[in-house]
Recover the amino acids of this structure.
């Protein structure tokens, strides 16, 4: 059997991509790491140069974006959130989130603490009509406050562990993303997320979630939710940079994360977080 007959026989049983990868390895140590890296970068929209988030400028000298030089996170100051819901609206617009009122990449919850230890939680993003504080007749209400929520971009994400095809992955700069071209819609990651931050997008038939607006971040821009917040309750930054606002935010506030006992190491940090928040 000559080489041409052998290759024809191989293509009947193996996809072309598998065959090419196999032959490349046999031909002298072909390394697919670079190919996998390019695929992840393309899925994340990270092909453009970038500067520090918030500068709005490309990397100096047009240098390529180096994900290994960053470690992104977000801070949220509870006392500053006024429940305007602009973050959720901006996120939907920026990321083409389905228009139905129950699909969100980020949302805002209103907590009402009453006497006797009762806590009522309401997602105001489902009904973004203007609302005031608790009515004067609600004498049993001790306090109310708003809590923005989103994907926590965990350092040890359960969603990545359960994905059977590797569609959910962590980038080198600490952002958890979904490759929509690889996702098979099994919903395992949605069930595994302990923060309820994922949903099934019926338009794409894939899992969907917050990406920190990664396509903006790699170009030196802020996430849409951070940019539109009128009280600057959200702070985005690079934890590897001492000059980052997020680093200063962590240093000067009493910081908590959601569900710390799970050891997922979330990278969304809350200041003045009430113990009733889950």
């Amino acid at each position: 059997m000559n080489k041409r007959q052998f290759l024809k026989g191989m293509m009947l049983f193996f996809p072309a991509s598998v065959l090419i990868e196999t032959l490349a390895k046999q031909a002298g140590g072909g390394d697919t790491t670079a190919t996998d890296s390019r695929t992840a970068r393309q899925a994340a929209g990270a092909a453009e140069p970038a500067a520090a988030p918030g500068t709005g400028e490309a990397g100096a000298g047009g240098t390529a974006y180096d994900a290994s030089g960053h470690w992104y996170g977000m801070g949220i100051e509870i006392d500053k959130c006024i429940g305007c819901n602009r973050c959720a609206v901006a996120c939907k617009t920026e990321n083409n989130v389905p228009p139905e009122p129950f699909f969100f990449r980020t949302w805002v919850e209103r907590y009402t603490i009453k006497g006797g230890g009762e806590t009522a939680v309401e997602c105001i993003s489902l009904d973004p009509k203007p609302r005031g504080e608790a009515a004067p007749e609600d004498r049993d209400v001790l306090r109310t406050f708003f809590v923005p929520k989103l994907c926590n971009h965990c350092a040890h994400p359960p969603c990545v562990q359960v994905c059977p095809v590797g569609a959910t992955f962590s980038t080198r700069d600490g952002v958890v993303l979904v490759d929509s071209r690889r996702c098979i819609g099994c919903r395992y990651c949605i069930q595994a997320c302990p923060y309820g931050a994922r949903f099934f997008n019926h338009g794409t038939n894939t899992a969907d979630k917050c990406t920190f607006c990664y396509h903006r971040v790699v170009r030196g821009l802020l996430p849409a939710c951070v940019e539109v917040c009128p009280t600057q309750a959200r702070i985005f930054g690079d934890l590897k940079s001492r000059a980052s606002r997020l680093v200063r935010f962590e240093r000067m506030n009493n910081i908590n994360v959601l569900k710390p006992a799970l050891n997922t190491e979330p990278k969304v940090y809350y200041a003045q977080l009430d113990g009733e928040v889950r």
In short: Residues 10-41, 43-50, 55-61 have pLDDT under 50 and may be disordered. DSSP finds nine helices and eleven strands in the chain.
